[in-house]
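Sample intake sheet
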Amino acid sequence: MIFEESVFAKYRGKRVLLDANLLLLFLIGSFERNRIERFKRTTDFTVSDFDLLATLLQEFRSVVTTPHLLTEVSNLSNSLPEYLKTDWFYHFASQTENFLEVMHPAISIMNETSFNRYGLADAAIHSAATETLVLTEDYRLSGFLRSQGIDVLNFNDLRQMI
């Protein structure tokens, strides 16, 4: 069994935490699939990437997020066309009801060493990652989390395996 399969098997039926870019991909794709490759914040992804992510998420009991990640997704999505925003923000809010939101005060996160290197949203991932698999497409972040003993899979590696 390869590394990714063993880590995935360990967390199947448990919790997964998505970084902001993957959370945005999931939300945009579940809102309007054909927008993934046209929206400037998700053009690095394809509809197939969304399908892979959606399939992976079905294997978990819950998707964990933080207020800091949700804020980042909200800010990134703010560049959607105006005519979509009302429907988009309704979709965003309704999907967020399905997530397990883990809250750590920003000031406590800012006192961690990860904040100085990775910023608030990624440091919040580090804080919230206990007993949770982290799924990211950021190699720098995934390397750091692994060095801290946190189980993490890089979505780019999973894309190449399929």
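Comment: The mean pLDDT is 93. The CA atoms of residues 66 and 102 lie 5 Å apart.
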